[in-house]
Amino acid sequence: MSERGIFITLEGPDGSGKSTQASLLASRLEAEGHNVTRTFEPGGTSTGKRLREIILDHRSAGMCGVTEFLLYAADRAQDVHEVIVPALRGGRIVVAERFVDSSIAYQGYGLGMDIDEVKAVNRIATRGLVPDLTLLLDIDPALGVRRATDCHEADRIEQRKLDFHMAVRNAYLMLAA
After folding, report:
1. Which of 22, 108, 29 is nearest to 69 (CA)?
2. Ramachandran quadrant class, 128 (left: phi over 0; alpha: psi -120 to 50; beta: rest)
3. What domains, with CATH codes, occur in the chain?
4. Which of 87, 100, 125, 168 could make an SS bond with 77 (beta carbons 3.0 to 4.6 A apart)?
5. Binning pLDDT at 50, 70 and 90, where does residue 89 land?
6. How far, CA to CA in Å, does 124 sit from each of 10, 70, 130, 143?
7. What is the pLDDT of residue 130?
8. Span 134-177, pLDDT tens digits
């Protein structure tokens, strides 16, 4: 078996450029001869795609924060099991858009869930896996939501009030400090 790969996550508020930067990073690493696996949350697996539809769908407007959080954790657990761990075991570099910090920021600080509970459930979902490197992409929340919704109709999370998005951004900045 090859040496363990490298796990890189990109974090940040909606519209901060995670997908663009993940693509550029993966392309650069591949150009340098590295084997790269990209993934994202929610939806990096076939199971995750179905969970993503539930999480982001406007018909789920009444979903409580705990349900939302557990669906994200389920998506993360599947991604770790199906994509991330096998790629790392194969010596690949994994570039992931979002990971545990997103749950801490969005459900923990954004929705006011207990941070220790968010961390505990994520330890189970990730089997204790932590990134080798996390890159935070920052943006003013109002601009970020505007950028995110320039390309598509706002999803259930993007439609939340600016106060929510400010809390998320502040959480990311605190996590990065």
Report:
1. 108
2. left
3. 6-176 (3.40.50.300)
4. 125
5. very high
6. 21, 11, 12, 34
7. 98
8. 999 999 999 998 998 887 888 888 889 999 999 999 999 999 99
